[in-house]
Amino acid sequence: MTLPPGWYPDPADRSTQRYWDGEGWLGAPLPADAPPPAGPPPPAPPPAPAPPAGGPAAPPHPAGVPLPPGVPALVHGLPIAPLGARLVARLVDIAAVGLLSLVVNSWFLWKLGQVMAPAVGEIWAASRRGEVADPPATPDAGRYLIAVLVLTAAMWAAYEIPALAQTGQTPGKRLAHVRVVRLDQPGPLGVRRAIMRWNPLGLATVLWCWCIGFVLQFVSCAVALLDQPLRQALHDRAAQTVVVAAAPRQPGTGAAGPHLPGGNP
Question: How many CA atoms, within 13 angstroms, populate the side-chain half-sphere of residue 203?
């Protein structure tokens, strides 16, 4: 339900109040204890010339500051992406990286299977005899497993970092109509910020063999469930990014369609 037009406490500064017209804040703030006008504030003077391309933009809603009921959090004019759409995007990307890694790691997986086969066979035979297995040592298994995990992390980096750096969208995010954007200004993330966002998740892949990596990745993503109002995961906080809803591309144009304020694309 959309908040009706009227004067409300400013979510960015609780000592002031501003006029909400049903879609955005209008006019300059007033002290919180001052009697507001009966209607909207008078028109503001003409805005100053826009900064050059790539210059700073108006800051988004401050993290941790509550919004009035019904007021959506916007970043650069786009609403925060629904968590369900983000989950779909992540699952699609995991499936894509998994398939690519399966192909790239096929030789190492085959060698790992060969090394582990005697130990697995001994464990199986001992269990059928009702005995405790004493499998042979497999010193090469750890080396092959580390190679598989390092190659998997490298494939993930090659899949995600360039896509986020240029467009803010991996194939999964494009399918789910979500986009990763900078908090400070609109525009591409750039390689450095894309790497900063990937690092907390991607580097933990090497720790999968000790089960620590899964825990680190789960915690990084789960923080978005609790963060308000920007729904930032730990990897978003590391790179100062946020995931927003993005309008789907119009067929035949390659351009994003118009965004519907206050709703999903």
Answer: 8
